[in-house]
Amino acid sequence: MNFVIPSGLVAIFSVLTWAASAQSADDALQVTNGDFSDLTGLQERADGWYAGVPLGWSTTVSVEGSTNYSIRNQTGDFVANVSALSQTQPSFVAFTQEVGRLSAPGEVTLTFELKESWHSPDFYLGAAIYDSMSIAYPLAVGNFTNSGSHTLTASNVPAGTQIKIGFWSALGFPSLDNVKITVRPNE
Questions:
Q1: pTM listed for this prediction
Q2: Beta-carbon neighbour count of residue 160 at 10 Å?
Q3: What topology is assigned to 7-185 in CATH?
Q4: Domains of the chain by residue range
Q5: By CB neighbour count within 10 A (0-12 exposed, 13-18 middle, 19+ buried), where does 103 fall?
Q6: For residue 81, with 0-12 CB atoms within 10 Å meaning exposed, 13-18 middle and 19 or more buried, which class applies?
Q7: What is the pLDDT of residues 132-162, one digit of tens each?
Q8: Sequence-distant (≥ 6) Cβ neighbours of residue 108 within 8 angstroms
């Protein structure tokens, strides 16, 4: 017996399949503790500061005591001091997080906020989206020197790519907050 599926149903099924793949792509990538409000494992210090590496994030900064001032409570809003969590000299170390595997080819967008610096108005923040297997060649990289909302986009990222995000400070004390990642599947 042969079944004929009306073309309208095929179109609806196609849209539902695309929406499901878009949803699964978004579900596959997620930033943990992007607002830095989860203080688990951090040591409270004086004047609203916390020491340590925030939950969900990684760094291998080797300078003794460099993460003593990593998170700051700015009137109820927690921000990451990227200067304390990264380094560019004597070797490069970014403040990073693995955010998941891309389930379908698409465009990956990193959004974040840079707050006014508490110490010096001038800063230079670098940000990147990486394939975790090849971090020497970022999928997208940007430099940011002013406060406000920012985005960084990597286009045509292949399905199966393990995505990692990274931030570093080359100058001053950038205050990072509200880090998010989104995916738009290729059409």
A1: 0.83
A2: 12
A3: Jelly Rolls (2.60.120)
A4: 7-185
A5: buried
A6: buried
A7: 998 788 999 999 999 999 999 999 999 999 9
A8: 29, 102, 129, 139, 140, 153, 154, 157, 163, 181, 182, 183
